[in-house]
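Technical annex, item 7. During the second reporting period the consortium partners agreed on a shared format for inverse folding records so that results from different sites could be compared directly. Each record opens with the tokenized structure and is followed by the designed sequence. A conforming record, contributed by the partner at site C, is shown below for reference.
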């Protein structure tokens, strides 16, 4: 059975989708961009480092609502507006995802919602 996740403190989705879903032991966190807590139609201030930290924190909150932590994450997908930002993303990412790190795909895209620099989704197993 599938259930929607609606985490407190995480801005509501911008479209017709859930923040995340659970299906059995799997937890799917929808792609997160670095939206502001005050206005979810605005990005936070800062560059790729700040946006990377924000999307990880949003994912953490959604995972927590489903009883998971980042250590339960089995796979992440990162979408970057500029692949040259990957070294900076990796610096932040390794602070949150410790070994054994989850599997990961990184893709450069032509654009992200609201002009975001990064979007990240993940799959966890509880």
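Designed sequence (site C submission):
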């Amino acid at each position: 059975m599938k259930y929607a996740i609606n985490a407190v403190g995480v801005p509501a989705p911008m479209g017709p989708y859930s923040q995340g879903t659970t299906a059995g032991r799997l937890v799917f966190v929808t792609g997160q961009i670095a939206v502001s807590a005050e206005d979810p139609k605005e990005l936070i201030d800062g560059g790729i480092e700040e946006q990377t930290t924000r999307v990880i924190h949003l994912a953490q909150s959604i995972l927590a609502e489903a009883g998971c932590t980042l250590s339960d994450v089995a796979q992440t997908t990162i979408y970057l507006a500029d692949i040259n930002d990957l070294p900076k993303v990796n610096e932040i990412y390794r602070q949150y995802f410790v070994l054994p790190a989850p599997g990961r795909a990184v893709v450069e895209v032509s654009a992200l919602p609201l002009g975001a620099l990064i979007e990240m989704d993940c799959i966890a197993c509880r």
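Residues 44 and 92 are 16 Å apart (CA to CA). Helices lie at 48-65, 86-96. All partners now use this format for quarterly exchanges.
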